[in-house]
C-alpha cells in the first residue's frame, strides 16, 4: 500500500522506524545507511545489573510509603502528613527517605553509566553499594527517625562520591587516549 493509505499510527510509530526490530532487510538500489560505531566495554552488563538493583531499591522504598499511608492514614494527594497529624512524624520519615532517594537517583544513574563506559566494574560496584545504601537508609529512617538514616547515608555516599570523582578520571582517560 502507498504510505498515504496506511493508518497514521502504523507509519509514524512502526517498530522499524525506531530500530526496534533491527535493520530492514530490503533496501532500494543505491540506498545506504550511515552508522556511527560505538562499542560498550566488556563487563558493561554489570552496570545494567547495578541499575536494576537501584530499581529494586526504589520499589522497596515505594512499597514502604504505600504501607505507611495505610498504617498512618495519610491520604493522596498529600505528599507529607498534614500539620497536626497524630502520626505525622512517623509517616514523614518514611516518605522523606523515599524522596531523598528520588532526588539522588537520576544523577547517580547518569554517573554510573558514564563511568561504566570506561570502568564498568568500578561503576557497577559503586552503583550496587549506593542501591544497598538506599535500602539501609530508608529502613533506618523509618524505624529510628532522622538519627536512623546515618548508616545508610554513609553507605550511599560510599557509592555516589566515588562515581562523581570517577567521571572526571574517566573523562581524563578518554582525553589522553583520543
UniProtKB/TrEMBL annotation:
Regions crossing the membrane: 43-61, 110-131, 151-172
GO molecular function: glutathione peroxidase activity; glutathione transferase activity
Subcellular location: Membrane
Keyword Membrane: yes
UniProt keywords, alphabetically: Membrane, Transmembrane, Transmembrane helix
Bilayer disposition of the protein: Multi-pass membrane protein
Major location (coarse): membrane
Organism superkingdom: Eukaryota
GO annotation terms (biological process): leukotriene metabolic process
GO CC, alphabetical: endoplasmic reticulum; membrane; nuclear envelope
Family annotation (Pfam families): MAPEG
Protein name: Glutathione transferase
Annotated organism of origin: Zooxanthella nutricula
